[in-house]
Design brief:
The protein has about 120 residues and is an all-beta fold. The protein has no helices and 11 strands. Strand 9 and strand 10 form a beta hairpin.
Length: about 120
């Protein structure tokens, strides 16, 4: 059974940092490209960042570039999102997904709230 579970969300103040993790199981994690997306209250989903299977290439949305860092540990089957200098507009449910060919898996999200 494929499982993707994001965790590490919480309530932080503007300017603070948070690291999200996404634990994967049930598929060959090291062969999949991985992404983080988010959905703010009342809005549609927004792509945040992606990383290739080997971890050597990362891509970011303009809204998070320079503040967020995506990474992965293929030995532990975990995807990370380091979020620095958080802003209120980063408030959202953050989800991870895995893509290989036509196989696309989604995980459950974790809520990040940025508020003073």
């Amino acid at each position: 059974e494929v499982q993707l579970q994001a965790y590490g969300g919480g309530l932080v103040r503007p300017g603070e940092s948070l690291r999200l993790s996404c634990a994967a199981s049930g598929f060959t994690f090291r062969t999949y490209g991985m992404s983080w997306l988010r959905q703010a209250p009342g809005k549609g989903p927004e792509w945040v960042a992606s990383i290739n299977s080997g971890g050597g290439h990362a891509f970011y949305a303009d809204s998070v570039k320079g503040r967020f860092t995506i990474s992965r540990d293929n030995a532990q089957n975990i995807l990370y999102l380091q979020m620095d200098n958080l802003k209120p507009e980063d408030t959202a449910v953050y989800l991870c997904n895995a893509l290989f060919g036509v196989n696309l898996y989604w995980g459950q999200g974790t809520l990040v709230t940025v508020s003073s």
